[in-house]
Amino acid sequence: xxxxxxxxxxxxxxxxxxxxxxxxxxxxxxxxxxxxxxxxxxxxxxxxxxxxxxxxxxxxxxxxxxxxxxxxxxxxxxxxxxxxxxxxxxxxxxxxxxxxxxxxxxxxxxxxxxxxxxxxxxxxxxxxxxxxxxxxxxxxxxxxxxxxxxxxxxxxxxxxxxxxxxxxxxxxxxxxxxxxxxxxxxxxxxxxxxxxxxxxxxxxxxxxxxxxxxxxxxxxxxxxxxxxxxxxxxxxxxxxxxxxxxxxxxxxxxxxxxxxxxxxxxxxxxxxxxxxxxxxxxxxxxxxxxxxxxxxxxxxxxxxxxxxxxxxxxxxxxxxxxxxxxxxxxxxxxxxxxxxxxxxxxxxxxxxxxxxxxxxxxxxxxxxxxxxxxxxxxxxxxxxxxxxxxxxxxxxxxxxxxxxxxxxxxxxxxxxxxxxxxxxxxxxxxxxxxxxxxxxxxxxxxxxxxxxxxxxxxxxxxxxxxxxxxxxxxxxxxxxxxxxxxxxxxxxxxxxxxxxxxxxxxxxxxxxxxxxxxxxxxxxxxxxxxxxxxxxxxxxxxxxxxxxxxxxxxxxxxxxxxxxxxxxxxxxxxxxxxxxxxxxxxxxxxxxxxxxxxxxxxx
Amino acid sequence: xxxxxxxxxxxxxxxxxxxxxxxxxxxxxxxxxxxxxxxxxxxxxxxxxxxxxxxxxxxxxxxxxxxxxxxxxxxxxxxxxxxxxxxxxxxxxxxxxxxxxxxxxxxxxxxxxxxxxxxxxxxxxxxxxxxxxxxxxxxxxxxxxxxxxxxxxxxxxxxxxxxxxxxxxxxxxxxxxxxxxxxxxxxxxxxxxxxxxxxxxxxxxxxxxxxxxxxxxxxxxxxxxxxxxxxxxxxxxxxxxxxxxxxxxxxxxxxxxxxxxxxxxxxxxxxxxxxxxxxxxxxxxxxxxxxxxxxxxxxxxxxxxxxxxxxxxxxxxxxxxxxxxxxxxxxxxxxxxxxxxxxxxxxxxxxxxxxxxxxxxxxxxxxxxxxxxxxxxxxxxxxxxxxxxxxxxxxxxxxxxxxxxxxxxxxxxxxxxxxxxxxxxxxxxxxxxxxxxxxxxxxxxxxxxxxxxxxxxxxxxxxxxxxxxxxxxxxxxxxxxxxxxxxxxxxxxxxxxxxxxxxxxxxxxxxxxxxxxxxxxxxxxxxxxxxxxxxxxxxxxxxxxxxxxxxxxxxxxxxxxxxxxxxxxxxxxxxxxxxxxxxxxxxxxxxxxxxxxxxxxxxxxxxxxxxxxxxxxxxxxxxxxxxxxxxxxxxxxxx
Lengths: 603, 639
Known about the structure:
The structure holds 2 protein chains of 2 kinds.
Chain A: H1 2-18, H2 24-33, H3 36-53, H4 56-68, H5 78-123, H6 126-130, H7 134-176, H8 178-225, H9 227-232, H10 236-289, H11 294-335, E1 357-364, E2 375-381, E3 387-392, H12 398-404, E4 413-418, E5 421-422, H13 428-432, E6 435-438, H14 449-453, H15 462-471, H16 475-481, H17 499-512, E7 517-521, H18 529-542, E8 547-551, H19 555-558, E9 563-568, E10 571-576, H20 578-582, H21 588-602
Parallel strand pairs in A: 3-8, 3-9, 6-7, 7-8
Antiparallel strand pairs in A: 1-2, 1-4, 4-5, 9-10
Helix pairs in contact in A: 1-5, 2-11, 3-5, 3-7, 4-5, 4-11, 5-7, 7-8, 7-11, 8-10, 10-11, 15-17
Chain B: H1 2-20, H2 24-38, H3 43-71, H4 84-133, H5 136-140, H6 146-172, H7 174-188, H8 190-237, H9 239-244, H10 248-300, H11 306-347, E1 369-379, E2 382-392, E3 397-401, H12 408-415, E4 423-428, E5 431-432, H13 438-443, E6 445-448, H14 459-463, H15 472-481, H16 485-490, H17 508-521, E7 526-530, H18 538-552, E8 556-560, E9 572-577, E10 580-585, H19 587-593, H20 596-605, H21 621-629
Parallel strand pairs in B: 3-8, 3-9, 6-7, 7-8
Antiparallel strand pairs in B: 1-2, 1-4, 4-5, 9-10
Helix pairs in contact in B: 1-8, 2-11, 3-4, 3-7, 3-11, 4-6, 6-11, 7-8, 7-11, 8-10, 15-17, 17-18
């Protein structure tokens, strides 16, 4: 079942990408189309249900006529009532079946849509993730999907049904009395005119208020995120006045909308009542003239009443359509995203890595439009088990350099080989499974510490987990300070790990997969010097045969490396051991080292 | 009715009170106060409008009765005995009532929505202001993430607006409407009212039963949905980690499990939802049928007139409609009451530090700081600062050194009065901090924080955040002094370059320099650097250090640094450990002392793997300087 769903996902994805001309709403509706027979069935049931429900007045009117005339016996109405109730029992059953199928379809569509979104995001490469904000993605997969759930699972169906009810009620009105129905119909242009005018008026007002709201939200975000800066410059009042300007504007926008809205509903009410008044007056005259019975007039009014609710629903539904198309667009833009780092169709499995990493004429930039390359014609080759430290300023490309090895990004030019195999020729999984990568970000998942460490390999023995934690110098903390030791859940109430502790768990997590290549991307930034020292010492023995790339801010931990690379503007400008580099006169490394350390010491 | 009420109360109490420590009733009371207190002038017209509208609603069915009974005549079946005049009079009456009713509806709708909007406006304002003045103790709490706070200010406020709007409409007028309609029904026909009241209990008992079941499903569904959301949240945030461990499949399975759970719960509840509308249809049909049957017999026996029946039906609608609206309101209440609880919790929060009414405003200060027997803790059993006695001289450069948790940050937080000491005093130029206006105090202090937060405006705007009325010249001068000018002018738009979200299109070092310029332009007599340089790579550090020299000149400064190289030039270094000052002196003195500082220092520069020192050519400091600065424009700014 699971596997099948996954397969279907790839089929659907294929379809979306091959027909990019499809509009977003159509793409979203195609999820509904997969259940087309059920959808048609539901619609049919819905129409039948509405039609049968509308027969109630057709029974009540004549029965009233029979009842009020003392010449008739009461028994005459019993069959009418019985039939009416029987039909409605049938309606109730129909409704039940329809709603059940409807919910089933809605739930399944949403399930599919959400897992498809999730699977798509999982497929996307780092560059895609870089250009999409987490909060934005989250709101698309939650609140946007929920909106669509309402739309596809409920409102669309309801719209069809209400529309039919509305139309059918007119049909029945015509059946009861053509003339009266005609008068009611003659009022409807007024209704559509009001609808039209309001939509036209509302649109710019809504647009303006949405824009202001987004400015307001932006202001709030900035303020909340920078609250410490605000406080340290004592700029609270400045911030408040800035916020108040936007808050005022949003208030004004809202009031503008309210002014329009407050007249809308009553106007509809007015038209509705005008129609009612006409029917009542003319109907009375007809009864007076004996051209219809009172019962018929009564039935007519009842039917008219049944058409009011659908009318309100239809107007609201149409008013919400722009929002639906907006949401569909957001969702479709994820579903049709292209994968940048793609496996070749016949990618092979990466054999067990020995540890020779080679960059051949590698150039890379994040965005094709950028002129500047982040990595510029890099040539470089490690020996198996070598420890390479990389040094360079922000923007020098050091972090990008290590991220190329697990193929988080694809090179623009050149190639990267591991043990002589081009990494683009192997499956991503087989490649990444053998590489341990620890990033600057300290992302842990809210599960137990144990599960966090065993994240890359669920079948680890307790002993192995403890061992990895021990190398990352976090075992002692876990055993002694955490209430449930390795079973403690990260992020549980009152359990907050410091930045340094998180980094250490993240290091243990990477070590636990026993990587053949280890990439430490500035992962000691929040760790105390003493601790980094400890960890590095233990690492040295633990990963003797693992090719290691190390980016760190501390020069003291760089110099034990087998080789040090100094990077600048995407190029390797120096390469060698500490001993060699320290003696390269005029070299950057020597300058760095001497200024920061020797100058300090000799003071 | 009693059955489902009881259940409801019980359930709410447990979940709400557990989480927020307040009952639903209390929250509603507070919110009502909120809406009422600030909008008093709108309440009387609103009530008048609502009541007028209700009067109209009560009036119209009577017009129908008049029209049918008098206009069409008692014997409507034969068509004779009617009165055209009455029909037309009734028509005109009804038309007038409708027009007036439309007007009151417009007024009513406008005021209600306006009230809700004002409430939203005020709530958002008060929350925002509250956040500005809550102390760092609040904002530092890792549980209170920026995301949560943003959501309070946006989503929660919005959902309360909805609640107020729907509440005002559903509760205020409907109460009268229901009882009025009931009175009229009884007045028109006791027998017909009885028929209705036989149906109502059935409706409530069955409805209560279904509702109770639905609540259970709703609760389960909410839990499932929230677990799907948190699963999504984690996965999206950790997507890079997931991909780097190549555990997408496993992760998909975990996510799938959560969504499948949700799907199943949703399907389970679908059966229930399928039953409800059918049930409603049946009740309506049987109800209407019985009503008509009884009414027919009553009319036949001349106990009531047809007009009475018509009027009765209209009152019946008036009776049920508000009840349906109330149910809608309660559903909304269920969903948004938690938002109310969250907002009230924050509004009730007291800023830990507040100005005394008789606090003085510091006009200008020289920068002499005295810590006198200062003691501080967050939790009594764990002292954070103990027995701190320091005198910082005017224009002295002081550095604080120690492990994480030694009390350095707290030292600074007390100085900038984000907290008050539990015991002892902090005195600036002879003024006790407790007797000084906070805003004026912080205006005299520059604080450079660890993460160099920049706002997403232009570079210029970011720099003049330190001095709002700064001229362009002043901004450029400040940027020059901290070596930021060179790189800024090289950017495409120079000083008008827009800094991306969280300053992302600048390097760490550049952001640091801009935040230095921001601090420098405010020209504070006291400058605090809270681990300002720890996020910087050694490469950028060279650039920053020189800027730091400029920044620290001519003022009292206190810096915390992990990186010892940045504080070696300080006049005095305080070494802290577990809340106490354990060593004190210049770098040289402390090294000679061979104590804790020496240990820290060695740790930072010692090679962990090789015991012996690495050999390199001996080089004199002068040669070194030449070597570093000569012919390398990268460092030209430093000389």
